[in-house]
Specification:
CATH class of the largest domain in chain B: Alpha Beta
Number of helices of chain B: 8
CATH architecture of chain A: Alpha Horseshoe
Order of helices and strands of chain A: EHHHHHEHHHH
Order of helices and strands of chain B: HEEEEHEHEHHEEEHEHEEHEE
Number of strands of chain B: 14
CATH architecture of the largest domain in chain B: 3-Layer(aba) Sandwich
Largest sheet of chain A: 2 strands, antiparallel
Strand content of chain A: under 5%
Number of strands of chain A: 2
Oligomer: heterodimer
Structural class of chain A: mainly alpha
Helix content of chain A: 55-70%
CATH superfamily of chain A: DhaL domain
């Protein structure tokens, strides 16, 4: 048994709770090197998402992910809206209309999400962005052969390390890049939110028994 | 935080309601998604000029909607870019059959959201990105220069061109010419407080100023002790003039802008100094704009913008404009 549309919805509910819980932390991180809106923007987007998770047309994981994409694109704003929106849109396309996702499909969706973020934002590893969290997460996910929960746990662990690695970096993308050397010493808020989302998905997968 | 607001969550839409109430003859405001549209839109056969960005910079952009300037403005949350659905809605409300030009300030969020909208739009849409802030080093290692005061001048000039019937390609070409000829820089004496954040965006001691400040409180080139008005104006004007560079014999438009909290008495004082410094360099100021037109909430401070003029730009600057914030010739 793989990950169904209901499992994806459950994971997104968990992610919404986590985003709301960490809203102030993300605002603080963004205040240090950006414009202090990341936590508020993410909260606004995921709050809008919550009200749409009961939709009756959410019959496949791909449909759920597509709804997430359009919701985030139209409610988040900032750089995070188009970036996360593109990530979910590409993930949705990658899984097609499968009724259930196995661990390979999940890894493929993560890879597609990363490709979308890179295409949209043109950041590479080392620029101090969400790509620094997502890139190692994708690599870890594709190297695990096991349950969906195991794949997502590995991705979340790698994302945490990746986010941590942004602290000494000098930003080369986004508003933090205006700070130059002064951006070093701070955790990138986008990398942190990526880590939080993947951790929420992993915890949900384990808790809900969505795994094979 | 002391502000005239009811609820930090609804500041933007509450302000839009007031704007609609104040200018029913000029604007029609839509709320879901939020778009400020020229009252007589769409104007058949005219290129639609559309801009937008985070709120908190009023009157930019909504205050420039009206005849001779913008057809629509898309207000995001405070200091947050608007979303693609707002831009798409603006395009569909304003498209007069000959396409739309999106004027985008160079910030990662704005560029990504407008770019996404441009890809989704069914009408013919082109966009231009303005990046006139000389405080930021333009290199591969930054997001590039920010769009600041030059945006106001660009919106006026290209708005007039669209009004007289220029087609989309001509509006794009004119925009590129303005963007290539305009430079700006600002300074802050105090910080500003974003309503949903509740605390100042940055700390600045009583005796310090930030030279090269961004319109969202982004850091500038340097933090120095507060000096005299002459020192402040010179600290902004010198890098602006040297960047393009502006040279003796150039004809320019000088735009002296308040960041929101600096009163007109100080702004005129600074403007007078800037005019003198330009005269000393042999640069002729042919047109002026003085006032709070691109602000950063309640921040005290100012910015200077210089645009090198040609005859066509002068003619378009002088053309009639009828918006909440700029009005002449009507």
């Amino acid at each position: 048994m793989g990950c169904t549309a209901a499992d994806v919805v459950a994971a997104l509910r968990a992610a919404t709770a986590v985003v709301r819980e960490h809203r102030d932390e993300l605002v603080r991180l963004d205040q240090a090197i950006g414009d202090a809106d990341h936590g508020e923007n993410m909260k606004r987007g995921f709050t809008a998402l919550l009200s749409r998770l009961d939709g009756e047309d959410l019959t496949t994981p791909g449909k759920v992910l597509k709804m997430v994409a359009t919701t985030l694109i139209s409610t988040v704003g900032g750089a995070a809206g188009p970036l996360y929106g593109t990530a979910f849109l590409r993930a949705s396309a990658a899984v097609g209309d499968a009724a259930e996702l196995d661990c390979e499909a999940v890894a493929r969706a993560l890879q597609a999400a990363l490709d979308g973020v890179v295409a949209r934002g043109k950041a590479v590893v080392g620029d101090k962005t969400m790509v620094d969290a997502l890139t190692p997460a994708v690599a870890a996910a594709s190297s695990v052969n096991g349950s969906v929960a195991a794949v997502l746990s590995a991705a979340a662990d790698a994302a945490a390390e990746g986010a941590e690695s942004t602290i000494p970096m000098v930003a080369r993308k986004g508003r933090a890049s205006y700070l130059g050397e002064r951006s070093a010493g701070h955790l990138d808020p986008g990398a942190r939110s990526t880590e939080l989302l993947l951790r929420a998905f992993a915890d949900a997968a384990r808790g809900e028994g969505a795994a094979t | 935080m002391k502000k005239i607001i009811n609820d930090p969550e609804t500041v933007v839409q509450d302000a839009l309601r007031g704007m609609q109430a104040a200018h029913p003859d000029l604007l029609s405001v839509h709320y879901d998604p939020a778009v400020v549209v020229r009252a007589d839109a769409p104007v058949r056969g005219k290129v639609a000029i559309i801009s937008g960005g985070g709120s908190g910079h009023e009157p930019l952009h909504g205050g420039f909607v009206g005849r001779g300037m913008l057809d629509a403005a898309c207000p995001g949350a405070v200091f947050t870019s608007p979303t693609p659905d707002q831009v798409l809605d603006a395009v569909s409300r304003c498209d007069g059959g000959v396409g739309a030009l999106l004027i985008v300030k160079n910030y990662t969020g704005d560029v990504l959201n407008f770019e996404t909208a441009g890809e989704l739009a069914e009408s013919e849409v082109r966009s231009v990105v303005i990046d006139d802030d000389v405080a930021v080093k333009d290199s591969l290692y930054t997001a590039g220069r920010r769009g600041v005061g030059g945006t106001v001048l660009l919106e006026k000039i290209v708005g007039a061109a669209a009004e007289r019937g220029d087609d989309l390609a001509a509006c794009v070409a004119l925009s590129e010419r303005v963007i290539a000829s305009v430079r700006s820089m600002g300074l802050a004496l105090t910080s500003c407080t974003v309503p949903h954040v509740g605390s100042p965006s940055f700390e600045l001691a009583d005796d310090e100023m930030e030279i090269g400040i961004g319109i969202h409180g982004e850091p500038g080139r340097q933090r120095v002790p507060v000096g005299t008005a002459s020192e402040m104006v010179s600290a902004l004007l010198t890098p602006i003039v040297e960047d393009l560079p502006f040279e003796a014999g150039d004809r320019v438009l000088l735009f002296t802008n308040s960041m929101g909290g600096t009163p007109l008495i100080e702004l005129y004082l600074a403007h007078g100094i800037a005019e003198q410094l330009l005269a000393d360099r042999g640069i002729t100021v042919e047109r002026r704009l003085v006032g709070p037109y691109i602000t950063s909430l309640e921040m005290q401070g100012m910015s200077l913008t210089l645009l090198r003029l040609d005859d066509e730009m002068v003619e378009l600057w002088d053309a009639p404009v009828h918006t909440p914030a700029l009005r002449w010739g009507v």
